[in-house]
C-alpha cells in the first residue's frame, strides 16, 4: 500500500473501535479526546480486569493499554487477549525510562509501544499502523476461512494438458520451502496459483502477504517491503512494520517483480540469500522466515541480457519456474471456465444463469482473449449483472467477440501466374511484412508487437530467428527509442 504513517488508517475511522485501558483519569480523558477528534469510536476501561470484561462483550480493533496498573497489568492483559478470536491489535504505553517493558510487551505480541510522554501525532500514527496490521491479519483469517478447500488442487479449473502440467508442478512444490517464480501474461491467474501454493503448504496457517511491485511508487516500495524506523524520512513519525515482517511464518507474494528498481533488486537478493534485512533508517538487522513466491509478465531472461535485471537475483528467483500459458493456447478450457464463473456468480450475486448457447460458446472459444482468464471472468460478471438470469446468448456478448477482427487479405494484385506460384514463399513474405509492420507500429518492442499479432512473444522471437529478419530487427532496435 502506498500510504505512509500519519496519513490516517486504511479502514474508515468510523468503523474502528478502540479500547483505552488506563488507571489515571486525566491521561485516559486526554487520549479519548484525541482519538474522538480523529473520528474513532472509543471505549474506556480503568483497569485490566475491566478491559477483559469489555473485550469479552464486544470486539475492538485496537487496545491501547498502560503497562503498569494495579491488579492485572498491561502485559498480562495482552497475554489474555492474544488467544481470542479476531484479537485486537495491542499498543502498550510505558512510563519514561521503561523501554524494556515495551520490548517485553512486543515479544508477548504487542504491535508497538509508546513511551510517555508522547504527542498526538505519534499516537495517531501508531494507531493507524496498528489498524493496518489488524486489517491485514483479519483478511488472512477470513481468507483462510472462506477458501478452506477452495484452493485445493482439485478445485483448479482446466482440462488442457498444458495446465495439467502446471498443476502437477504446483503439487510438487507447494509443500516445499523453495522459491517459486510464476511466469505468464497478465490475467492468466498467477495470483490464484500463488494462493493455491500457499494454502497447500505447511505455512497455510501463516499469513499470505501480497505486494504489487509495479503498483507502489518506487519512493515508497522499500518502506512497504522492509518497514521504516521513526524519523527515517519526512513523515515517518512512527516505526512501521514492513511486508516481510508481516509475512513471518507465511508467504510473501511479490507480483510484477520485473518492475523492481536496481537498488531494490539488491535488497531482495540479500533477503533471499541471507534471510535478513534492515528497516529504512534502521541499523538493527532483522531476520525473516517468509517464503517467497514471485510473479512477472515480463521476459526476465531478456531483462537480464539487457542489464535491466540482476542475473544473480534472477537465478535466486528461478529455483522453480512455472510458465502459465495464455488462455488462447488452451481454448478448450473456455467452456469449463464459463461454467465455473457462472456458478460463482450465481452464488455471490444471486444471479440465475443457466448456461451458454452453442453459438455463443463457439464465439467465446474462438476469441483470442488478450486479457486472458481475467477478461473472461469480467465478461461473465458483466452478463450476470445485466442479464441476471437465463442462458448466455450471442446478443449478450460485446461486439469485439461477436465480430472478431479478421486477418487482412492478401493484396488484390497478387495473382497466380501461368507458370504457377511458390505458395510457401508468398505466405512467408506476407507474414514477414505483417511482423515488420507490427514491430514498426510498436517501436520495435517485441512483447507489444506479439500482442498486436495475437501470438506469444516467444513465438515471435522464433519466427524472427528462423527467417532473415533477426539482423534487420537488431539494426532497427538500435535506432528505436524504446527497448524491447
From TrEMBL:
Pfam families found in the cross-reference section: AAA_lid_14, HTH_8, Response_reg, Sigma54_activat
Modified residues (4-aspartylphosphate): 66
Species of the source: Candidatus Nitronereus thalassa
Name this protein carries in UniProt: Sigma-54 dependent transcriptional regulator
SUPFAM superfamilies (alphabetical): CheY-like, Homeodomain-like, P-loop containing nucleoside triphosphate hydrolases
Domain Response regulatory: start-end pairs: 17-131
Keyword ATP-binding in record: yes
Sequence ranges assigned to domain Sigma-54 factor interaction in this UniProt record: 156-385
Presence of the UniProt keyword DNA damage in the record: no
Keywords: ATP-binding, DNA-binding, Nucleotide-binding, Phosphoprotein, Transcription, Transcription regulation
Organism superkingdom: Bacteria
UniProt cross-references to PANTHER family, sorted A to Z: PTS-DEPENDENT DIHYDROXYACETONE KINASE OPERON REGULATORY PROTEIN-RELATED, TRANSCRIPTIONAL REGULATORY PROTEIN
InterPro entries: AAA+_ATPase, AAA_lid_NorR, CheY-like_superfamily, Homeodomain-like_sf, HTH_Fis, P-loop_NTPase, Sig_transdc_resp-reg_receiver, Sigma_54_int
Amino acid at each position: 500500500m502506498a500510504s505512509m504513517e500519519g496519513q490516517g488508517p486504511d479502514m474508515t475511522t468510523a468503523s474502528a473501535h478502540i479500547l483505552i485501558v488506563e488507571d489515571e483519569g486525566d491521561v485516559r480523558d486526554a487520549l479519548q479526546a484525541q482519538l474522538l477528534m480523529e473520528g474513532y469510536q472509543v471505549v474506556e476501561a480503568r483497569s485490566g480486569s475491566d478491559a477483559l470484561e469489555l473485550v469479552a462483550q464486544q470486539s475492538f480493533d485496537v487496545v491501547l493499554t498502560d503497562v503498569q496498573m494495579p491488579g492485572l497489568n498491561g502485559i498480562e492483559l495482552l497475554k489474555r487477549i492474544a488467544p481470542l478470536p479476531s484479537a485486537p491489535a495491542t499498543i502498550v504505553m510505558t512510563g519514561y525510562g521503561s523501554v524494556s517493558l515495551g520490548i517485553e510487551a512486543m515479544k508477548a505480541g504487542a504491535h508497538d509501544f509508546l513511551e510517555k510522554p508522547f504527542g498526538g501525532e505519534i499516537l495517531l500514527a501508531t494507531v493507524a499502523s496498528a489498524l493496518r496490521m489488524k486489517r491485514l491479519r483479519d483478511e488472512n483469517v477470513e481468507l483462510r476461512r472462506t477458501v478452506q478447500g477452495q484452493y485445493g488442487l482439485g478445485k483448479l479449473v482446466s482440462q488442457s494438458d498444458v495446465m495439467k502440467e502446471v498443476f502437477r508442478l504446483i503439487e510438487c512444490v507447494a509443500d516445499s520451502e523453495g522459491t517459486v517464480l510464476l511466469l505468464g501474461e497478465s490475467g492468466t491467474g498467477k495470483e490464484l496459483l500463488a494462493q493455491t501454493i500457499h494454502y497447500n503448504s505447511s505455512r497455510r496457517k501463516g499469513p499470505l502477504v501480497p505486494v504489487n511491485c509495479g503498483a507502489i511508487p518506487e519512493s515508497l516500495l522499500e518502506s512497504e517491503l522492509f518497514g521504516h524506523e521513526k524519523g527515517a524520512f519526512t513523515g515517518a513519525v512512527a516505526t512501521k512494520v514492513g511486508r516481510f515482517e508481516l509475512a513471518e511464518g507465511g508467504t510473501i507474494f511479490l507480483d510484477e517483480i520485473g518492475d523492481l528498481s536496481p537498488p531494490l533488486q539488491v535488497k531482495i537478493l540479500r533477503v533471499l540469500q541471507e534471510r535478513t534485512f534492515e528497516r529504512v533508517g534502521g541499523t538493527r538487522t532483522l531476520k525473516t522466515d517468509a517464503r517467497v513466491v514471485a510473479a512477472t509478465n515480463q521476459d526476465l531472461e531478456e531483462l537480464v541480457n539487457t542489464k535491466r535485471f540482476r542475473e544473480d537475483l534472477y537465478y535466486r528467483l528461478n529455483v522453480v519456474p512455472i510458465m502459465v500459458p495464455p488462455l488462447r493456447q488452451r481454448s478448450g478450457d473456455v467452456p469449463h471456465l464459463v461454467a465455473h464463473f457462472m456458478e460463482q456468480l450465481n452464488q455471490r450475486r444471486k444471479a440465475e444463469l443457466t448456461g451458454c448457447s452453442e453459438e455463443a460458446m463457439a464465439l467465446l472459444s474462438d476469441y483470442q482473449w488478450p486479457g486472458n482468464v481475467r477478461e473472461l471472468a469480467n465478461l461473465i460478471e458483466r452478463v450476470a449483472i445485466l442479464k441476471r438470469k437465463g442462458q448466455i446468448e450471442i446478443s449478450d456478448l460485446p461486439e469485439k467477440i461477436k465480430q472478431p477482427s479478421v486477418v487482412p487479405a492478401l493484396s488484390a494484385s497478387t495473382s497466380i501466374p501461368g507458370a504457377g506460384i511458390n505458395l510457401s514463399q508468398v505466405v512467408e513474405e506476407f507474414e514477414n511484412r505483417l511482423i515488420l509492420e507490427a514491430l514498426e507500429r510498436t517501436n520495435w518492442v517485441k512483447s507489444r508487437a506479439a500482442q498486436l499479432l495475437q501470438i506469444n512473444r516467444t513465438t515471435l522471437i522464433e519466427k524472427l530467428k528462423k527467417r532473415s529478419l533477426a539482423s534487420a530487427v537488431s539494426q532497427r532496435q538500435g535506432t528505436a527509442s524504446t527497448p524491447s
